[in-house]
Each structure stands twice: as C-alpha cells, then as structure tokens.
Amino acid sequence: MAILDPAVADPARAEAHDAADPLRAFRDRFAVRDSDLVYLDGNSLGRLPKATAERLRTVVEDEWGGELIRAWDHWLDLPVRVGDRLATAVLGARAGEVVVSDSTTVNFYKLALAALDARPGRRAIVTDRANFPTDRYVLEGLARARGLEIRWIDPDPVDGPEPRDVETVLDDDVALVTLSLVNYRSAAIADLPAISSLARAAGALTLWDLSHAAGAVEVNLDAGGADLAVGCTYKYLNAGPGSPAFLYVRSALQGELRNPIQGWFGQNDQFAMGPAYEPVPGIAAWLTGTPTVPALAAVEEGVRVVEEAGIGAIRAKAAALTAYAVELHDAWLEPLGFGLGSPRDPVRRGAHVAIRRVDARHLSAALLEQRVITDFREPDSIRLGLSPLTTSYREVRTGMSRLRDLAAR
Ligand SMILES: *Cc1c(COP(=O)(O)O)cnc(C)c1O
C-alpha cells in the first residue's frame, strides 16, 4: 500500500501539472470538439490532428480530384517515405528498415511466416498467452498449416512477460519468439534487449508487436537487437480508423527473409509487368498490393506531430500522467476495493493504466453515460488510455473522480 499525500486529490494539483506540462500546447493541434468529454481511449483510437483533416482534403480534392492518375508519381513512394520518418522519429530504426502497408494482422502474418521459412527444421514458436488476440490467432493458423508447436508462456498478468519466462522455454527447436512490447491489457513493457538477445543466442528470430508502444514510449529497435516488428498507427500515432500499419525488418536480415505474399508492389521493375516475381531490393519488398493513399497521408501527418513533440518528451509525459492516475487510484479507488492491473514502476509501464474490480464492465458502461470514455477488458479491467499529446491532467482527475463517485454508490 502506497503512502498517501493528502494533497494528491486536490484539484489544484491537476491544474499545476497542466500548467507545467511542456507538451500542453499540443492538445490544440488536435480537433477537440467537445471539451467536456473526457477521452481516455486514445490507445484504441487516437484523436484527429487538425493538420490531417486539411491534408486529407488536399489529397482527396486536389490530388485525386485534380491530378487523377498522374498523382501516382508522388503517391508511389509514400509507403517508404512515411516508413523512413517513422523509423527515425519513433522506432529507433534507420531509413530503409520500415515500410507502411496493410494491417498489423497482415504484416504480422507476413513477418511471422518469413521468419519460420528462414529457420527451416525448427518446429516451435514462443509467445505469451496474454498476447493480443490477433497475434495469437495468426500464430495458431500458421502452426496448424505447418504442423508446428506453440510454446505458450504464462507470465505474471500485471508485470510479465519477463526474460526468464522466455528463457525457460527456449531451445534449438525454437524458430520464432514473438511478444508485444507493451501489453495491451496491463501496459507492462517487456525487456526487448534482454529477450531479443536470449532468442538470438538460441538461434531464433524475434518479432515484436509495437501497437501499444509506438508513439507512447521510446522504442530502440536497432540498438535493442530486435529482428522484426509490426505495429498500428491509429493508436498513439493518431492516423485514424483503419490506417495502415508498419513493419520493420532489420537491415541485416533483408537479404535473407522473403515476403510470403508476393504481390506486384514488391516486384522489381513493377510496371514492366514481367512474367515472374523477383523482389525489389530493400524494405519495399514487403509491400503487397496498392496502398491506401489517403490513409497513408494521414499516417504521415500523425507521425509528423509525434516527431515535432519528440518521443522523449512524450514518454516522460506518459510516465507522469500514468503516475498521477495511479496516485488517484491509491487515494480514491483502492479503499473501494479496486486493484491496480498495471506495473507500479513507471519505467515498466506504457501510456495506459488498468484498474480492476469485479464490476469493471458495468462501471465502464456507467462512465460512458457520464461522458468519460474508457474501455473494458475481460475479465475485470477498466483501461484508461492516457495519450500524452492529447490528455490533460485535469481530464485524468475528472475521469477518476467520476469513477470514484460511481463506485462508491
Ligand atoms: C490494436 C492492436 C492490433 C490491431 O491489429 P489490426 O490488424 O490493426 O486490427 C494488433 N496487435 C496489437 C498488440 C494491438 O494492440
């Protein structure tokens, strides 16, 4: 039990945090139509950057409406151009290692299958039973199709997975280790460098899902020794519903791994329409079919805002916002029977916080009626997504106080 400072719940505390927030001006860069709505779900769908609305108008009216097919001259390189920006500004990677295309699910399939093909003879995949559902489902399908074994680890639901959870199931039969960097439920951050190095020592490749990490915490794919990664852009990168995902392939592996979806956008000399597939050199080989141009333009704008704010400042605010939510949880909610479903140490936590009580489903629905948007996650968690560029301390306090009032009834 934490030691409580009685001033924690004072509204002046939230005002002071907001006044001292170096990122506070960024909230005005987003469309906030209803300033009374408490939006604590930016980890499911980030808010709309104002620049994106303007950019989409240009793409639709001027480029599509005016340039028509001639616009492909500058549309064609969007997936790689936006990937380069994402690589250097957000993911700790180099230009030429990231491309934006397809959905996270499809990219996960491409990279997982490519990794399995690159380790022929090895028959096991290691993942976490608490990993995001789409990743687990894709792996189940691949394991069935290839006759492989999935070695499920069952880490601590709040703090896991830890390197030792992975270490105990690794051997020379493991082809692939795949985990989320930030767990979608608990927000626990996995130790990417330690786990990647354990996997490499065992001869396995690593595939990291960064969906709840990109734009929320610092990611160091190159320095951390990750082999492969995927992630979505509509959460903390604020690129809009269904915006295309990214994928990363460490440059040293690009000659070795092959995209299993051999589409014409990954083809060398695409418009020669040649008789046989021959992949283009570099990261563009991981493209499949025609990119969704307006949505890619929205990714570019979303990444631009994150780049301008700086991922270091964003990460610092994520730690401070979630710490404030944890303090309010301890002061107001723990006495009402709640428990924290996220790590207490901010270094080990992404930009959301899970708080647990058996009636979480009902409470999350009741909060919605009180104009506080959160989400419920089975079996007993309310997830508060505190997207650093758009969430104020005041908003966190208001949301938590409404939850306290509901829970005390
Ligand atoms: C949100 C999320 C996804 C989403 O995948 P889609 O293909 O965009 O639906 C995948 N993985 C994780 C960890 C997520 O949080």
Word description of this protein:
- With 409 residues, the chain is an alpha/beta fold.
- Helix content is 39%, strand content 13%.
- The strands form three sheets. The protein has a seven-stranded mixed beta sheet with strand order 2-8-7-6-5-3-4, sandwiched between helices. Strands 9-10-13-12 form a four-stranded antiparallel beta sheet, covered by helices on one side. Strands 1-11 form a two-stranded parallel sheet.
- Strand 5 (174-180), helix 8 (192-201) and strand 6 (205-209) form a beta-alpha-beta unit.
- Helix 1 (11-20) packs antiparallel against helix 13 (393-407), helix 2 packs antiparallel against helix 10 (293-309) and helix 11 packs parallel to helix 13.
- The protein is globular, with a radius of gyration of 22 Å.
- The mean pLDDT is 97.
- The site of pyridoxal-5'-phosphate has 13 residues, from helix 5 and helix 6.
Strand content: 5-15%
Count of β-strands:
13
The ordered H/E elements are: HEHHHEHEHEHEHEHEEHHEEHEEEH
Distance between the termini: 24 Å
Q: Main sheet: which strands, in order across?
A: 2-8-7-6-5-3-4
**Which overall shape is indicated by the principal axes computed on the Cα atoms?**
globular
Largest sheet geometry:
7 strands, mixed
User: What ligand molecules are bound, each kind once?
Assistant: pyridoxal-5'-phosphate
The helical percent reads 25-40%
Query: Rg, please?
Result: 22 Å
Instruction: Output mean pLDDT.
Output: 97
What structural class results from the helix and strand content?
alpha/beta
Distinct helical segment count: 13
Low-confidence stretches: none
